[in-house]
Amino acid sequence: MLDDETQQPENVEESEQPVGESPESAEPAAQADAEAPAETQAAQAPRRQRRERAGGRGGGRETAADFGPPSEPPPPPRLYEQFKNEIIPAMVREFNYKSPMEVPRLQKIVLNIGVGEALTNGRAMEAASQDLTVISGQKPVITLARKSIAGFKIRQGNPIGTAVTLRGARMYHFLDRLVNTALPRIRDFRGLQRRGLDGRGNYTIGIREQIIFPEIDYNQIDKIRGLQVTIATTAKNDTEAIRLLELYGMPFIKDTVEA
Question: What CATH code would you report for 104-248?
Fold first, then answer.
């Protein structure tokens, strides 16, 4: 029969097993944790939570890194597809163009907000620029006075407004929102006047309130401001320009024939 001194090293060797060598070694450790007193488990709980949070953050970064670029490009603007499929054939039939390339097209859309109060209120320019950014989806530029005007207390170089120029897909998306969403929200709207043309194929609209655009939150603005929208086309005259905008869906007032 072995004495206590001989049995003690054997028990120690059996209890000391290498960690992480096989799944079987993890089962006794789990059973030991389950059989541990409640006080010991409560003391180890914060450590486990910290390890789980650290593992979750690391896993989140790896998951975000696995995402690649979108497999499909965004769809083209709806009005551009309408221009190619419907407007070009209609304009060729009406104006007898020899080639579809003669059909007038949209060139750009310019949004402008005049901020005369910026001379006395420094925050007015920042608020107007923020509104124009939300409306257009593009950061505007600050326009400066070209010359000094004593009557308006303006000196050359003073910031007096903010403007943004839209081209390409953003131009078509803005025109779509303007025609189908913003203009119908104008109070007592009965149509657009035809006298906004300049004789060279450009049409200008004056909007009194920027809140007609659904992107503007009424609770976030500091003041009701108006803006000017100029639609530039490649039309040679006003007749072609007005017909092009009508085919895009611009709600013009119909011409009335006087008796």
Answer: 3.30.1440.10
